[in-house]
Amino acid sequence: MRNKETSDLEISLLLEAIFQKYGYDFREYSQAHIRRRIMNRMAVSQFEDIAEIQSKVLNDATFASEILQDLSITVTEMFRDPLFYRSLRENVIPILKTYPFIKIWHAGCATGEEAYSMAILLQEEGLYERTTIYATDFNQMALNRAKDGIFSNKMIKEYTSNYQLAGGKESFSNYYTSNYDNVIMNQSLKKNIVWANHNLVTDSVFAEVNLILCRNVLIYFDKNLQNKVQTLFYNSLINGGILCLGSKESLRFSDLYAHYIELDTKQRIFKKKY
Amino acid sequence: MYYEAIVIGVSSGGMKALKFLSSSLPIHFSIPIIIVQHLSSKSDSHWIHLLNEKSQLNVKEVDEKEKITKGYIYIAPPNYHLMIEKDQTFSLTIDERVNFARPSIDVLFESAAEVFKNKLIGIVLTGSNSDGTNGIIRIKKYGGLAIIQDPTTAESEYMPKSAIAAIIPDHVLSLEKIIELLLKIDHKNK
Ligand SMILES: C[S@@+](CC[C@H](N)C(=O)[O-])C[C@H]1O[C@@H](n2cnc3c(N)ncnc32)[C@H](O)[C@@H]1O
């Protein structure tokens, strides 16, 4: 066991170095999260202390991108929280149906499962043809996998059950083809999805969109950064647009809470006031 | 005030233990309690309401960024890891499972140890895996107090045994005795 304790100061200097050198800004992320990931990396790569990580990050771009992967958690699922998707069908789809063209932004889409789930739902509701889905993340590796749309079939049983609980109208297996250990999502689901690299901390307003999903991303940010990103979302939504957060995320502490109506409190679905 | 928080890890057989614990502590108990209980990722929070009805303390599922307050028993939500920040607020993450578990006891214990150092009490109760062992090691390393449920009195002995094998616990006790001890500590704590 190392006897030297890693101080908060050392960690914040490392984050500062990453920001100065590579432009990725983790300085307002949850400190407990960052600390845990850095300590894991130190254990796995057998670093003596954080100074060693710091100098390697600054001199070795390959290693730096590994650290970025460490700090970006891409755990996701198809139809994660099925009752959320059920609520989308009931409460949000009717609103979307009133628009001739629909723009949807998945902020922090990870490896794409959420965007594919949305594409399936929109196809079933007859809205996919008039929709563009912008699925963004700052993790290019995750985006590349999202684009491929190839997922391990180990998860399919669970996804099928999620899909059914979410109110799916078909057989889930209609949406992919199996290939050895993997499934490949149908081309027809991909055609209106635009995958793009976008950093919520350092990049600007995205587009005028009808619906934003940003689920399980803000939990990694501190309160201050959450507020900044909420402003970005507010400015990206049309009046009457919809914001969906993760099932444990809240707008209540945000300065913008008063500017939304809660469409579904439990499923964290909000509508921007006119 | 000396001890600032109590963290508890519990797995299979835990529901009964938690019922007993939350209904036994008195209204003036002043050390906040934070619990990771292994549950299916889709379980709802109904059982928390039941615990709350039977408890003199406030039993609630953790809200993200909530500040840790005395008089509360906090429960980690299913399918999220629970961590504690230096400013004594909660963070949730959906990182990979640890010891096949999310929430993981180790994740809570390790982050709590970083924050509360020797002002932390860690308790490992019944369970049939070894989650919590690395966490209790960390708590001891920072000088915190380690209490383990006596395996012979636990519904599932594996988890307490695993913890006992890894550290020199301060106390190995039945649930009843653990509660007595907590009351004593709380009394001195004020
Ligand atoms: C846990 S995943 C959430 C995936 C999906 N939305 C869900 O709920 O299942 C979090 C994602 O947020 C992304 N993320 C973290 N910080 C980001 C930032 N500053 N800008 C864009 N994406 C970010 C990570 O790369 C990761 O893919």
UniProtKB/TrEMBL annotation, chain A:
Domain of life: Bacteria
Record InterPro entries: Bact_Chemotaxis_MeTrfase, CheR_C, CheR_MeTrfase, CheR_N, SAM-dependent_MTases_sf
Pfam families, per the entry: CheR (PF01739), CheR_N (PF03705)
Keyword Endoplasmic reticulum: no
Keywords recorded for this protein, A-Z: Methyltransferase, Transferase
CheR-type methyltransferase domain ranges (all copies): 1-251
GO MF annotation: an example: S-adenosylmethionine-dependent methyltransferase activity
BP term (GO), one: methylation
PANTHER family (alphabetical): CHEMOTAXIS PROTEIN (PTHR24422:SF8), CHEMOTAXIS PROTEIN METHYLTRANSFERASE (PTHR24422)
Listed name of the protein: Protein-glutamate O-methyltransferase CheR
TrEMBL record, chain B:
Gene3D superfamilies according to UniProt: Methylesterase CheB, C-terminal domain
Reactions listed under catalytic activity: [protein]-L-glutamate 5-O-methyl ester + H2O = L-glutamyl-[protein] + methanol + H(+)
Keywords assigned: Chemotaxis, Hydrolase
UniProt xrefs under SUPFAM superfamilies: Methylesterase CheB, C-terminal domain (SSF52738)
GO biological process: chemotaxis
Domain CheB-type methylesterase residues, every copy: 1-183
Record-linked CDD domains: CheB
Coiled-coil stretches noted in the UniProt entry, renumbered to this chain: none
GO molecular function, one term: protein-glutamate methylesterase activity
Active-site residues annotated for this sequence: 11, 38, 131
InterPro entries reported in the protein's UniProt record: CheB_C, Sig_transdc_resp-reg_Me-estase
Cellular component terms (Gene Ontology): cytoplasm
Enzyme Commission code: 3.1.1.61
UniProt protein name: protein-glutamate methylesterase
Lineage: Bacteria, Pseudomonadati, Bacteroidota, Flavobacteriia, Flavobacteriales
